[in-house]
Amino acid sequence: MDYHFSEIEKKWQQRWREDKTYSASNDSKDPKYYVLDMFPYPSGAGLHVGHPLGYIASDIYARFKRHKGFNVLHPMGYDAFGLPAEQYAIQTGQHPAITTEQNIARYREQLDKIGFSFDWDRQVKTCDPEYYRWTQWIFIQLFDSWYDRSQDQARPIKDLIEYFEKNGSQGIRAACSEVMDFSAEEWNAMDEIRQSEVLLNYRLAYRSESMVNWCPELGTVLANDEVKDGVSERGGYPVVQKKMMQWSLRISAYAQRLLDGLERIDWTESLKESQRNWIGRSEGASIHFAIKDHDDQIEVFSTRPDTIFGATFMVLAPEHELVRAITTPEQRDSVEKYIDQTSRRSERDRMADTKTVTGVFTGAYAKHPFSGKDIPIWIADYVLAGYGTGAVMAVPGHDSRDHAFAQNFGLPIVEVVAGGNVQEEAFEAKEGEMVNSDFLNGMQVKEAIAETIRRMEEMGIGTGRINYRLRDAVFGRQRYWGEPIPIWYDGKGIPHPVKEENLPVILPEVDKYLPTEDGEPPLARAVDWNYNGFERETTTMPGWAGSSWYFLRYMDPHNEKEFVSRKAEEYWKNVDLYIGGSEHATGHLLYARFWQKFFFDRGWVTMDEPFQKLINQGMIQGMSAFAHRKKGSNTFISYHLVGDQETTPIHVDVSMVHNDQLDLEAFKAWREEFGKAEFITDNGVVHVSREVEKMSKSKFNVVTPDAVIEEHGADALRMYEMFLGPIEQSKPWNTQGLSGVTGFLRKFWRLSHREGDFIVSDEVPNEKELKALHTCIKKVNEDMKNFSFNTSVSAFMICTNELTDLKCNKRSIIEPLVILLSPFAPHMAEELWEKLGHLDSVTRQPYPTHEEKHLVESTKNYPVSFNGKVRFQIALPADMGKEDVEASVMADERTAKYLDGKQIRKVIVVPGRIVNIVIG
Ligand code: ANZ
């Protein structure tokens, strides 16, 4: 019987499903291991061969861990809310739930064919009301919590209310949007509306008026990580800044813990670095400057308080709240004009633009806190409203942006750190000796920073401060296809959370998936959709809400009472291995860590980091094919004949190309315009040119796993995806390369088959066979530690070739090899395991480990020479001593033959190498 992958694979996939082979138990005495894939967004295009790369790697590892005796949790689900389904709904009127279900069905079908060991009973879909009731519940918990900086953890909001009732805001150290100062009496005297406003200033889920990234085309706001280079990440539509009432999550409260946690997890340095940069910790000082003839003060954040004597002017962000108050009448017009002008630029553009220097003088002056000198106050758009305090003390001698500004507007430049030529350019080094700086003169920068802070604290005009670039995450979306935010508003407009027993707040039906006439989000279209007659919140949650906690739900997916039970969480704890794309570095991976820390604070989970080890798989790129059309004609020239003729390369579908040759009939039938095409062939053949590009429909270079499986089988697809190269690397797909692994699989099958029949022998294996087996066992086990699956595939190939040469079909060699191969090619392994006479699945058989003794080459072939001429070889134990070697050679009958009665003069033995007999 030959290797019929298609029947074999179907048979085992069905068996696994029926037997629930990969079901993970929540009541196991075995050690746990949790292997997670980033769950997919089910898009209409289905999976191409790039998508399963990470899933295959994680599946191999999950299977390996089962062989190692672990109770493995390896689940899969769908990140099912999101923009594409909604955009499609707007175009077609089709409810996004329907398209999403269709896409999920297609994904499932495709995933099933690959033979993954997922525990499908634990599947989650973020758009399922039974799932999102808990996403809504979590939102309510965030709303009902505040962050206590003294204890460095989130606490119930009722604790804060009790505190306010007794003490007001005195002595409270809380994460908040704005520092507040009120007494207990003042708190108790506030009306309900005011108290609600004050509490929003502390809640971890809060509503406030803030500048947001507004995307008019998508009709929604976007979080910072959803905007790339001034356009939306999805769709590439322009994004502008707009002030709006918005729900946000106070992730900034967790900035330091998000940094600290990175030290305890096994992620790549580059991934950690992008989170560190996103969080952007800066150490410096907050300094208060008095304003001349004004009661207000300007607070600045500076990383270089040591340079304070070089501060020759101040700059406020145009949006700074004091601008209008301090601007003198003479300057009013130009200031207003400038404010209007900057409102049209996004924060990102302002940060990215280092060339244009613009700004306007307000007419007001600040007082230098040490020298008492007047320093002019300007506004300029290089100072951002949302960072630090939105104001800087400008030190043109030592900051290049301030330098450019001073040069442009003729403001004084003073050197305060020696070492450069500050009139020419800013000297930005963070070391050197202080000059022109009164009490700091002669100190080094580091000392001077500490001394300035000490003095300012003494005078009560400033303090040391740590600043983070991380902004709170805007959480409301003016879109339909997401979780409704579970909030209702009472008659006074005060927001309240929906009661737990009224969850989930089901996404209501609407007539159109578009905003209302007056610009309200689509949910405002819902008829009779209210909360006991009260108005409901109509924004929905962003795409990342459901994915911020799904890994916990897999632990206990059917729990109707809690989002995850304490018992399940205590057993599974956290994800041991997480595999997914690096594009989630500053989105999903940061949000999920934030939520986990929040759950930890509130005592619902025992681990404060969710993902212990993380691997980013590379991308599989497409190998595009181009036919070359002669300029201005409908004639196609075989690529080899193009030479220096001018041609237009045209993408052709890769399914019409075999060995770089275009299937002309298929090509003509592809599009009407090509029906009448003419061809200049190379011996009847039209070659295409190839180029590596992103795999995408628009480039006609998509290869689906289904097509590969149909032709070569799932085991071949699995092994080939791994064989392409190291998992973290991006690499092009090349269908032709598949023949290597398909050849290997057939060869492996044939080891135990003779003329179609399954035949293994019970003979004792010889050393060579044992060596081939144990070399492979050793390599594969080492590779598992390093997730180096491509080299394991090579090791299997070498071993199989060697055993084929040795004609080995011995059970004691084949059996361990089958187990060893099973994580990679599970269908074939199960089939052979069954043929070997086993009734249970190969899944939990102990993984083979190597024995060193089989690896050492135990015999050595000595060439035996007579007067320097090699006459024969003799196999002797490699560790045999000199005398024994000599004795064995002498005892060999061939020696007698070559001596031919002659006298031996000398016998030279080089142990492990040669034997030379000198005669004559
Ligand atoms: C005086 C100074 C002197 C500064 C010097 C730098 C060098 P990072 O490291 O990014 O935190 N800054 C503060 N708030 C700002 C804002 N809203 N928009 C633009 N710039 C702002 O940088 C902090 C430094 O960036 C601060 O330190 C401040 O300039 C500026 F030789 O203050 B510095």
Detailed description of the structure:
With about 900 residues, this protein is of the alpha+beta class. Strands 10, 11, 12, 13, 14, 15 and 16 form a seven-stranded mixed sheet that branches. Strands 23, 24, 25, 28, 29 and 30 form a six-stranded mixed sheet that branches. A hairpin with a 2-residue loop joins strand 31 and strand 32. Helix 21 packs across helix 22 and helix 22 (about 715-725) crosses helix 23. About 40% of the residues are buried. The mean pLDDT is about 95. Bound molecules: ligand ANZ. Ligand ANZ binds near residues 303, 387 and 467.
The number of E-state strands comes to: 36
User: How many helical elements?
Assistant: 29
Alpha-beta classification: alpha+beta
Strand content: 15-25%
Helix content: 25-40%
Report how far apart the termini are. Answer: 62 Å
Biggest sheet statistics: 7 strands, mixed
Shape: globular
* Parts with pLDDT < 50 across at least 5 consecutive residues: none
Query: Which ligands appear in the coordinates?
Result: ligand ANZ
Query: Average pLDDT, to the nearest integer?
Result: 94
Calculate Rg over CA atoms. Answer: 36 Å
Write a concise keyword list for the protein shown above:
920 residues, alpha+beta, seven-stranded mixed beta sheet, binds ligand ANZ
Give a summary of the structure in a few sentences.
With 920 residues, the chain is of the alpha+beta class.
Question: What is the strand and helix layout of this fold?
Answer:
Blueprint: H1 5-19, E1 32-37, H2 52-67, E2 71-73, H3 83-92, H4 96-113, H5 129-143, E3 145-148, E4 153-156, H6 157-167, H7 184-189, H8 192-200, E5 205-215, E6 220-222, E7 227-228, E8 231-232, E9 240-249, H9 255-261, H10 269-279, E10 281-291, E11 297-302, E12 313-316, H11 323-326, H12 332-342, H13 347-352, E13 360-367, E14 374-379, E15 391-394, H14 400-409, H15 445-459, E16 462-468, E17 473-474, E18 487-489, E19 495-497, E20 535-536, H16 550-553, H17 566-572, E21 575-580, H18 588-601, E22 611-616, E23 620-630, E24 635-637, E25 647-652, E26 657-658, E27 661-662, H19 664-670, H20 672-675, E28 678-680, E29 689-693, H21 705-712, H22 714-723, E30 731-732, H23 738-751, E31 753-754, E32 757-758, H24 767-786, H25 789-805, H26 811-821, H27 826-835, E33 859-866, E34 869-877, H28 882-891, H29 893-899, E35 904-910, E36 914-919
Helix pairs in contact: 1-27, 3-4, 21-22, 22-23, 22-25, 23-25, 24-25, 24-26, 26-27
Bound molecules: ligand ANZ.
